[in-house]
Amino acid sequence: MRRRLVAVGRSERSIDIRILLAIIVCMVLLASCGTTRQNVRTVGSRPALTKREFIERYRQLEDPTPRDAKGKISLSTKGESRSIGIRWTMARDKGFALSIRPMGLLEVARMTITPRRIVLLDRTSKEAFVSEDPDELSELFKDLTGYKSSMLNGVLTNTPFSTQEVGADALEKMKMSIENGLYHFYQKKGKIEISHFFDADMNLVETGLTVGGKDIGRVTYRDFEREGVGYKSFPTGIDLLLLFTKTPTQLTINLDRSSQKRVESIDDSVPKGYRRLGLLSVIGKARKLLR
User: Fold this and answer.
1) Predicted confidence (pLDDT) per residue in 209-261, tens digit
2) Is the CB of residue 100 less than 8 Å from the CB of residue 16?
3) Which of 10, 125, 136, 176 is the most exposed place for a label (fewest CB within 10 A)?
4) How far apart are CA 129 and CA 112, in angstroms?
């Protein structure tokens, strides 16, 4: 059953790195010029597709142009809420980067995921977590949590995923039904249940993760933009609800459409002199911050 996201309200010391760490833990457990904004349309407004027809058409859609945009990210929990400026860079085939910039220009923290490495930077303390082997990191994440780290890229790039696959290949492994006017793709493997909801325009509007019958996290995508016919849309708003913490926590990302520009590459370099952190240290800090 689908549930609406409810904002709850956190702040204090190192809110910048808290936001990045909160995103990391959530994913472990779980943007252009000339665009037009779209409203969500239900399946009832168009003839329903079969699972095979849907997947074939979804495969044919081109990924949107890589983009970079200003925006804001908000963390809300325990009756408190705090927003902070960000710079969001995304390219489905190259990865993405989330830069935390409280004053607009000065970067204090960054999270980058590319096909070759994963980087988390804290510029205030000059610390960095780096994984040069995403496959090895994925296995370590799985050992620690039971979930694949590929879910991280899927959630933040508005891409469907299963327990093993990402994109249209993931949909092949899932069952499909029509629920409340939306295409519902779902998979249950062991105690893990993954759900994806698409509207009639093939926009992924919601993703949910359940473990042992208990909701762990839910993501709602909104304010979709499309470059043109034949392209996948991309949301300029993401609402991410974490339910595995003692107090529900919500992350909200809003991108400024007017600031979007095209990009050619994503920087995953680490400045000289930064102290390297281990994965267990990063996850341990994040879990403490979310208690």
Assistant:
1) 888 888 888 999 999 888 788 888 888 899 988 776 677 788 888 887 655 67
2) yes
3) 136
4) 10
How far apart, in whole angstroms, are the C-alpha atoms of residue 184 and residue 1? 11
Cβ atoms 237, 222 nearer than 8 A: yes
Instruction: Write the single-letter amino acid at 210.
Output: T
Letter for the amino acid at 11? S
If you write DSSP's letter for every residue of 11-68 in order, what string do you get?
-STTHHHHHHHHHHHHHHH---TT-EEE----GGGSPPPPHHHHHHHHHHSBPPPPEE
Contacts of 221 (CB under 8 A, 6+ apart): 158, 203, 204, 205, 206, 207, 235, 237, 238
In this prediction the pTM is: 0.73
Q: How far apart are CA 192 and CA 100, in angstroms?
A: 32
Q: Which amino acid is at 253?
A: I
pLDDT at 117 over 70: yes
- Domain-by-domain residue ranges, the chain? 15-289
pLDDT, tens digit (0-9, with 9 covering 90-100), for 138-193? 555 555 445 555 666 677 778 899 888 889 999 999 999 999 899 999 999 888 89
The rounded distance, in Å, linking the Cα atoms of 239 and 249 is 11
CATH 2.50.20.10 fits 15-289, yes or no: yes
> Which contiguous run of DSSP H or E holds residue 96?
strand 95-100
What are the percentages of helix, strand and coil residues in the chain, rounded to 5? 25, 40, 40
What six digits make up the tokens of 56? 């074939």
